[in-house]
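Question (not urgent): is this output format expected?
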Amino acid sequence: MAERLVIDHVGQRGDGVARVNGATRYVPYTLPGETVDAAALAASDRMQLVAIRTPSQQRIHPLCAHFGVCGGCAIQHWQPDAYRAWKRQLVIDTLARAGIDVEVTDMIDAHGAGRRRVTLHARRAPNGSFPVGFAAPNSHAVIAIDACPILDPALEGAFEAARALAALLKPVAKPLDIQMTAADNGLDVDVRGSGPLPPKIVAALSRLAEQYKLARLTRHGELVLMRAPPVVTMGVATVSLPPGSFLQATVAGEETLATLAAAHCGKAKRIVDLFCGVGPFALRLAAKARVAAFDSDAGAIASLQKAVASAHGLKPITAEARDLFRRPLVPQELRDVDAVVFDPPRQGAEAQSKQLAASKVPVIIAVSCNVTTFARDARILIDGGYKIETVTPVDQFRHTPHVELVGKFVRPR
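Got this back:
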């Protein structure tokens, strides 16, 4: 049975939030001030939107016909200025709850040409079909999709290629996840969920790779075939991607984050880049400074070392594989460093932050894709004597509640 609700505000997950007799209701695809009808969902704290009785004046028409059916985007229905203000406010509120008072600048839109990575799913449906697309909201069911307006045009052909892959692998497949990355020289594809591949299927995959210009095809990270090593350009360097390697979601996002980090480093001559990945910061910072880069991913470090060897015009870069969660750099190792940049995974860098807080590094730049763990790590640095000067939100995950952050910390003299 539907319940009549008035939406108070939009919460941290992008759902409209209503208060009823002290209880909280979460209704996706709704906006502040709207009166809506919503029905409870089994085993979920979210509700299903049934009807919008009084729409907000800030409501706009979604840009994608699949919005609300596909579970990818949370917000395409909100006027852009209001959306941006809400996303920036998420950052301000989360930092305030951690007792952090800092200037939060206007958010930078870094969607650019769109996302260059996508994971498509293929699942056997009850009717025996094998649809390829994205998962429905709160479900493992797959919504068949043949185009997505938020993807980089460099992923053109990804859906067609994924359907062809799923059709070939269906005899040996459990549910499939097909991760595609737009490299400079074609699509880099990793398939997860298939069983061992018989020679006949490998031969067919080789023909498919030629047809759809796949640079490389791997299964669970193991090489199946490669037409050419997939590469991306970072600054003046060309980086060969390890299978399944991490990249920022958009080219504009990577460039924006790196530009902010470099600006905050100022005239630093010796920089440490922690959680460096394949080098999106290190390869740009080295235009003006010596860089020591560290990451737990040995494949990423090897790719960075190879890129350094073939790049021209850069200051020296050293790259080392090291688990910074178990073996964070300690103050003695940071003794002669002018600046540290760290960009950890979503879980943040608590252990490394404690060591940084005990160091004398003049400038620390924290980059994060998780506001909550950023606030925790920032609190550690501040309690260790650092002053947080500024935080910049960066939006490369447009239409979602996810936001990137770049914060600058200085050690008062």
